[in-house]
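Sample log: Putative inorganic phosphate cotransporter.
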Amino acid sequence: MGVIAETENVRPKNLGVRHAQTFLCFLAMTLAYSMRVNISMAIVDMTDVTKDDHFDWSYSVQSTILSSFFWGYVMLMLPSGELAKRFGGKVLITISISVNSLMSLLLPTGAYLGGWQFVCACRVLQGMTQAFLFPSMHHLVSQWIPLEEKGRLSGIIYGGTQLGVALQLIVSGFLASAWGWKSIFYTNGILGALWTAAYLIFGSASPEQSKRISQEELKYIQTSLGRVGKQKKHPTPWMKIITCFPFWATVVAHCGQNWGFFTLMTEMPTYMAKVLGVDLKRNGVFSSLPYLSMYLLSYPFGATTDLIIRRHWGPALALIGLSYAPEGNMVFAVAMLTVTVGINAGHFSGYMLTLIDLAPNFSSSLMAISNFFSNITSLIAPLVCGIIIQDETDPMEWRKVFFLASAIYFCTNLCYILFTTSNQQPWNKPEENDSG
């Protein structure tokens, strides 16, 4: 109580440097996820047979391109946490956004010169550097955000992920219709370059390194975060983690959520174009609605949806409904897609919190492992879609994709319900075990 009272007394009344850092980090997450998903809309226009300069890529090739981002993402997932601790958040987040921007600028020309293989290479590099994204952001949040404001300010930062997807899908349709698919990548690249320049000038790895922060705000942050004395660190109990059954049940749930979420994220624009016959502008708007719903629902779901969200029943049922969407019935299909993706907002209050509940002292290590395995499913899901779907216009083949995702949702959720727990594990506090 004494610490809280003290920080309340010294808390600056006006907006400060920490708010500027929050805004820059929010923009970074928004841009990163925009560049993560831009190929999903662009590839619809790139392979449009009515265009003279279209690419004659089979659906399996398109699925390979859509999954290639995750090849690189998985490669550096495990070491990214250690790299963030060693080099700090500012360096890695700058590398992530700048490399993604450069690849976006190179991709249109490279696609004509190097074919789909060059496109995959660009996406792999983007994925590799985006592996730094969450560890870097976690590090920056831990340095900049006072405990009294962590929920609100970190929520703003991480909300950029869903907003980035939604805005990208909306804007891409209009950009491609007006100036062609190349403009999607050029826009992302230019915005990313502008952000990089701004962050190099105004961004800072920590309050202590900032040249613009006031002594009042610096003291407020330091006091709130308890930066007095040396913080005790424990070696990671890898064997305890590996043999923790509730942890692996949570990993399974994470994998199931990623399968369904990224199946829709990568395949939705193609489904809308080929099965529902939606033109590119409306495609982007309709495809964005689920992510806008996820962005808006991520806040209230954290407090009100234990029954639905922590058990993941909603996405599976909605996907089954989507698989039976009447051909050409866009209202029904978009409604099911919106429910499916919107309910996924609950993963912030489901398995994501379980990873913290199990072992708060080692939650970053648990998250790195879980994220590694879950993103392997993100890599596999589009490839499986490419194997299942031979005719992109056949609703029956898409129905198989949606039923598979529903089954995975159901089975992984069942594993989570039966075998995980939110009880803190004994190995979370090694010194207590040693003394006992």
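Observation: Confidence is low (pLDDT under 50) at residues 1-9, 302-313.
Observation: The first helix runs from residue 2 to 10.
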